[in-house]
Amino acid sequence: MAARGSGDPARLVGLLWAASGSGAAPGRTGLSTARVVDVAVTLADEEGLAAVTMRRVADALGVGAMSLYTYVPGRAELVELMLDRVAAQVYDGGDLPRDVREAAGWRAGVLRVVDANWAHHLRHPWTIDVPPARPVLGPGVTSKYELELAPLDGIGLSDLEIEHVLSSVLGLVGHAARWTIGVERVRAETALTELEWWETVGPALGAAMGGRSFPLAERVGSAVGEAVQAADDPELSMRYGVERLLDGVAARLR
């Protein structure tokens, strides 16, 4: 499996921008780069990123695998195109961050970014499985970045501070999404709810601890369990972290 960032980066940039414009016109086979990418995204949404191979995408399109290479150089480039395609859709059908800012202030605009990215990761769980690499320099990712900078522009932060705040917010969202999706996958694989898991693990843990006491961990863990009926709540933790980060930004602006 080719790593992200492999291949010809200049060719990939051209392909990313052509796929969203006039270069997306279908060929004689009815295929186009855009069509290949759409089918790959659907496959990833349904079966995960590992299912996205050139052969599986070709099968879904009803063509031979070699036919795809006319439109996409390889799997590594296909994943970049997929990321750009779904990034372009993050705010489809919803309020744009700048509009929310104009109506309710910069903080509400940033929270719109949080909500949109949270929904994006849950809608496309495979996005958390793509390893970090250089940025995808396509129109979808670029437009998304432009939209998400808007709530923080002109409020008194430097350009570097704007970037740091946005990156921190998106990092909190991405971490919580990875955590949430990971837990959901484990639940599906084990067929155990959180309560059933604790009922299984609790007695074994008590025996293994051999009477050792961890009063602070027990107190905090019990409080969390009572509040969220689970060992943790990634979304709740994420939203707490975002709010405190934005409190810090507000204090910085005073």
TrEMBL record:
GO terms for molecular function: DNA-binding transcription factor activity; transcription cis-regulatory region binding. It comes from the Bacteria. GO terms for biological process: negative regulation of DNA-templated transcription. Keywords: DNA-binding, Transcription, Transcription regulation. The keyword Cell inner membrane does not apply. InterPro entries: Homeodomain-like_sf (IPR009057), HTH-type_TetR-like_transc_reg (IPR050109), HTH_TetR (IPR001647), Repressor_TetR_C (IPR004111), Tet_transcr_reg_TetR-rel_C_sf (IPR036271). Gene3D superfamilies: Homeodomain-like, Tetracycline Repressor, domain 2. Residues 30-90 form the HTH tetR-type domain. Residues 53-72 bind DNA. This is TetR family transcriptional regulator.
